[in-house]
TrEMBL record:
Residues 13-67 form the HTH cro/C1-type domain. One of its GO terms (molecular function) is DNA binding. It comes from Gandjariella thermophila. Signal peptide: none annotated. This is Transcriptional regulator.
């Protein structure tokens, strides 16, 4: 079974090799290991042993920071549940999400208070990342770039991933950024909602209590692996594969769909907001 942490490990190994300028065949010769095995490790199809990961990092001359980060991923790569904690966990957390998005066969996302990451514009993402001066300019630029590249999984020509996005009304009316940023984001949402692989529904306010009020979550389905439930918080996140929790959150998705406006009503609401981006109730 490919765990969420193993997916992050595969991405980290792939990136450190590419950054070193070493090809798969060349690395295989250096390690006396089959390039096919290395490819399987980098794709997440298999999990390398900790000793093998250390050997790869040594040959590629990874920095001490990269070495510590990747070896930490390797130590728990077979664990089904993965909790990332603290500022040091954010890069790994993001890598895990990106890999889940890249390999998913379908994605269902609920976001009550702002636009889900896969549907954000670069300006909207940059505004969030820059808020409160919690990140430096270089970190903001890097994370904005990563967020922007994520959209490719639902916009690519060949087999775009089906996305079922549920957004709280507050997530569309709260002024996350200045009027021009919000207007651009709303227009982008309207365009994305028109894609055949994207179903976007808005859950209105004042519908009473529902489990979605407890916070955002994402379900990643895979063709050849168990579903991953991802819970995101300010400086931590959890990747969960236990059947009980996944089933519980699938029921939450059904609950929210019943409360939400239809895709047509949701699109009309978004289009109306985009026509008057500064208007708020």
């Amino acid at each position: 079974m490919t765990s969420p942490r193993a997916r992050a490990l595969s991405a980290a190994l792939r990136e450190v090799r590419k950054a070193s300028g070493v090809g798969l065949r060349e690395l295989g010769r250096m390690l006396r290991i089959s390039p096919t095995d290395i490819s399987h490790w980098e794709s997440g199809a298999r999990v390398p042993r900790l000793e093998t990961v250390a050997l790869i990092l040594g040959v590629l001359r990874a920095s001490p920071e990269e070495r510590e980060h990747i070896l930490n991923l390797a130590r728990g790569a077979r664990e089904r549940t993965w909790l990332t904690v603290g500022e040091d966990g954010i890069p790994a957390q993001m890598a895990g999400v990106v890999e889940c998005e890249r390999q998913a066969s379908a994605i269902a996302a609920w976001e009550p208070n702002y636009v889900p990451g896969l549907l954000q514009t670069s300006d909207y993402t940059r505004t969030i990342m820059s808020a409160g001066d919690r990140l430096g300019a270089d970190d903001v630029a890097l994370r904005t770039m990563i967020h922007s590249s994520r959209c490719e999984v639902i916009t690519r020509r060949d087999a775009p991933v089906p996305l079922h996005a549920l957004i709280g009304e507050t997530g569309l009316t709260e002024p996350i950024g200045p009027p021009d940023v919000m207007a651009g984001q709303l227009r982008h949402l309207a365009a994305m909602a028109g894609r055949p692989n994207v179903e976007l529904r808005v859950v209105p306010r004042r519908v009473g209590w529902h489990p979605g009020l407890m916070g955002p979550f994402t379900l990643f389905d895979f063709a050849d692996a168990p579903t991953v439930l991802y819970l995101e918080h300010h400086s931590s996140g959890a990747f969960i594969t236990t059947e009980h929790d996944v089933s519980a959150y699938r029921r939450v998705v059904d609950w929210l769909r019943e409360l939400a406006w239809s895709p047509e009503e949701s699109s009309a609401f978004i289009a109306d907001l985009a026509g008057e981006p500064t208007k708020r109730e």
